[in-house]
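re the bet — no i am not wrong, look at it urself. input seq straight from the record:
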Amino acid sequence: MRGWRAATEAALYGPGGFYRRPEGPAGHFRTSVHASPLFAQAVARLLCRVDEALGRPSALDFVDMGAGRGELVTGVLAALPADVYARTRAYAVELADRPAELDERIAWQDTPPAAVTGLLFANEWLDNVPVDVAEVDSAGVPRLVLVAGDGTERLGEPVTGTAADWLARWWPLPAEEGLRAEIGLPRDLAWASAVDRVVRGLAVAVDYAHTVDTRPPFGTLTGFREGRETAPVPDGSCDITAHVALDACAAAPTAHTRSSAPSDTARDVQNTTRIPSDARDPSSGRARTPQREAHTTSGTAQNPARTPSGAPQTPHGTARTLPSARLLTQRAALRALAITGARPPLTLASTDPSAYVRALASAGEAAELTAPGGLGDFGWLVQPVGIPNPLD
């Protein structure tokens, strides 16, 4: 048996892992990207705001972290004005092989560029950075949960060191037997490393999330297979995911001391990919939206020999002062980017029926992207670097 972090890495990203399959993430689940082209259009609008704040540089970077099969970066490029498109350098960061039909101008690589001037966007990436699970034993002590390939669990050693420190700060567990938490330190470090790649611009993480005041008492670790929620079994037969402590990630770029020599924890997270997912109630543990619903409108683990691709390398060691990150809902973020879900005026139905039908369909898609209890409740973590926050 081993901890959930090591088991998940092997099950999802190792040889024959769940997300090495040719069908890709969209073969199993739908994200905001798959729900509507409006999402990519909103991200393109955000990239244009970043471009303005940067003074329209000759080269503008767009980095799609955990790119799946390149759906988001493709949609963003298609939605850009011609002058911005001509200056944009597009990167898709993903472990899987490059799709044959992908636009040649998109750089496909398993690590992000060393220096980013522009927008680094991580849509549902952090949720699949593997984490360990802690559970309180009969004596009130949090212990690591160990798991076998068939999903059988038992309690291991007490949580100690930096993992225990993280729990105490971000997910304190009362001394009540059976309470569980996911130890989000690897995600904090992955996010800090991603932000460290941004020389000037904006880093954004979008995920289903919780904060310290709303942590679910039994955690959120779960599995999904063929659009259905299932028990998380680390044998490569299903996706394994958990909600993200985005408030902890928000504090990470300034909380963790940068070092030119990577720690074991930092090495472990340097190459972790994200797999797309969708959310309903962020505290319910039921996070994924099955593909078959696509037309509705409503502590540190061991150092693996090879870790999944997608996360940036260890921070470069450059000390700098960052402005405060901002946490907001997807509903608020998309509304700030002109995605509202408002119905078109009925007068349009009589003057231009075709335009009315198109506008009505678009309003339905926008409503889904911003819906309470669904995609609208996703968290957006927005970290400016050297520019004002374009969503303020």
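see?? The longest strand covers residues 198-207. told u. also Confidence is low (pLDDT under 50) at residues 257-315. so pay up
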